[in-house]
Write a structure and sequence with these properties.
alpha/beta, Rossmann fold, 6 helices, 8 strands, globular, binds flavin mononucleotide
Amino acid sequence: MLTRRSFLSLTGAAVLGAAALALPGCGESRGAASSASASNATAASSSAAAKSDTIVVYFSHAGENYGVGVIEEGNTAIVAKMIAEKTGADLFEIVPSEAYPEGYDECCDVALNEQNAGARPAFAQDIDLTSYSTVYLGYPIWWGDLPMCVYTFLEAHDWAGKDIHPFCTHAGSGLSGTESKIASTCLGANVGQGLSIAGTTAQNSRDQAQAAVDAWLG
Ligand SMILES: Cc1cc2nc3c(=O)[nH]c(=O)nc-3n(C[C@H](O)[C@H](O)[C@H](O)COP(=O)(O)O)c2cc1C
């Protein structure tokens, strides 16, 4: 059983299968899954103009979060921007059509319900990835997995021939086997070794986070 406290002691693939998860203090399941739809608007609009062949795509949740209080910028967003700055890559944020709750417990409930239901929450804007050969893909670990809205994004794109470099922030679980989940979702992509940074480090020890990013990028 994965509890909120056990985030701190879990590593990598030791994270449990989603079905077995229960997170007292991170919200109990409160009934039906949140509304979810894969019918995303495929607007061309994006903050990223396709000038580079490399892009950082990320999802991140500001608001109340584990070990950091209420934050204005999500932990993963901080790391995503470090990577974009260092590589000169474009930057694209996956924004769900329906925002996740700001409160930590409430967000945990919604995320767990989505995971249990295999939901694919819609995202607000899409981006044409055709011209990008390298994608840095960032996400927080949610219940030992990618947030379901990230799967929605991944399943909406053709990944054949692209290089994907996963990175995550977390509260103790590390990458939780998400590299192989990305590989089996993004057929034909080459998935590199991922980077995991504790959310508290990204938020509160930026020099340390930057050093980890720099070492990973080589
Ligand atoms: C819904 C939810 C579920 C989470 N599940 C896990 C988990 O299974 N393992 C873990 O290490 N951290 C978990 N966390 C903590 C986040 O991964 C961590 O705080 C991360 O840095 C948040 O990144 P963000 O600010 O970019 O969203 C969870 C947080 C939330 C909100």
